[in-house]
């Protein structure tokens, strides 16, 4: 089994229908490092995740994981998308949702005993085992987000990609999700897209700032001028660790 799960971008550019999304991005995310991707809407945050997954291909440059092709290691990547489209009338349980994360590991047949053991273990670790037989449509927004993280973890990944995991949840649910992400840090490579700058300094040592151009910063170096350059607005940056603005 490989031990190198570093993510490497080298001079990567990507355009959609002729419109430039990512321009000449070069950076490395180390094995078992946790980083956050921040930037304005439409700046290319989700596109970076899709390039890491191999769902889209760069027009120029290369994306590798552990020095090899993304496709060769895709089953080691857990992914939580920003949006989940589902019919609330469809009778799907929490266990059904989590087991979906095992599909990429199966060639044929139904879910086996080991699949269900793994799914239940992950639900236990996230404190959600009691919801195993609950209908997914009956869950709160925060509960759904944690179940979607459980689905991403069901493949027992070495890399976890989370796209706006804290969107559309209340403060209590956000705190629970942050606790989950914090506990995963160091166990695997974690890359999270977030719009919530306030929590970034608490959870991540490095951030990837993207607005077509990509820059990597130490979280402690984030300042008003850096954020204004990224977002193009006058912003206040709050350091939650030191309680300073």
TrEMBL record:
<keyword id="KW-0547">Nucleotide-binding</keyword>
<dbReference type="InterPro" id="IPR003439">
    <property type="entry name" value="ABC_transporter-like_ATP-bd"/>
</dbReference>
<dbReference type="InterPro" id="IPR003593">
    <property type="entry name" value="AAA+_ATPase"/>
</dbReference>
<keyword id="KW-0813">Transport</keyword>
<dbReference type="InterPro" id="IPR050153">
    <property type="entry name" value="Metal_Ion_Import_ABC"/>
</dbReference>
<dbReference type="GO" id="GO:0016887">
    <property type="term" value="F:ATP hydrolysis activity"/>
</dbReference>
<dbReference type="InterPro" id="IPR017871">
    <property type="entry name" value="ABC_transporter-like_CS"/>
</dbReference>
<comment type="similarity">
    <text>Belongs to the ABC transporter superfamily.</text>
</comment>
<feature type="domain" description="ABC transporter">
    <location>
        <begin position="7"/>
        <end position="237"/>
    </location>
</feature>
<protein>
    <submittedName>
        <fullName>Metal ABC transporter ATP-binding protein</fullName>
    </submittedName>
</protein>
<dbReference type="GO" id="GO:0005524">
    <property type="term" value="F:ATP binding"/>
</dbReference>
<dbReference type="Pfam" id="PF00005">
    <property type="entry name" value="ABC_tran"/>
</dbReference>
<keyword id="KW-0067">ATP-binding</keyword>
<dbReference type="InterPro" id="IPR027417">
    <property type="entry name" value="P-loop_NTPase"/>
</dbReference>
């Amino acid at each position: 089994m490989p031990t190198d799960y570093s993510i490497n971008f080298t001079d990567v550019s990507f355009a959609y229908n002729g419109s430039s999304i990512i321009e000449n991005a070069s950076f490395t995310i180390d094995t078992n490092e946790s980083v956050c991707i921040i930037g304005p809407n439409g700046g290319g945050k989700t596109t970076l995740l899709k390039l890491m997954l191999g769902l889209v291909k760069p027009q120029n440059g290369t994306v590798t994981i552990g020095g090899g092709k993304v496709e060769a290691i895709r089953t080691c990547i857990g992914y939580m998308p920003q949006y989940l489209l589902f019919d609330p009338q469809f009778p799907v349980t929490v266990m059904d949702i989590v087991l979906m994360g095992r599909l990429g590991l199966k060639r044929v047949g139904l879910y086996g005993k080991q699949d269900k053991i793994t799914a239940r273990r992950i639900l236990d670790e996230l404190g959600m085992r009691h919801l195993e037989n609950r209908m997914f449509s009956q869950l709160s927004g925060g509960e759904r987000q944690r179940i979607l993280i459980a689905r991403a973890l069901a493949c027992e990944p070495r890399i976890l990609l989370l796209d706006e995991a804290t969107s559309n949840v209340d403060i209590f649910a956000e705190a629970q999700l942050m606790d989950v992400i914090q506990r995963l840090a160091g166990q695997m490579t974690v890359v999270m897209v977030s719009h919530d700058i306030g929590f970034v300094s608490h959870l991540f040592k490095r951030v990837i700032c993207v607005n077509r151009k990509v820059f990597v910063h130490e979280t402690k170096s984030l300042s008003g001028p850096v954020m204004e350059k990224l977002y193009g607005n006058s912003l206040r940056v709050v350091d939650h660790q030191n309680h300073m603005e």
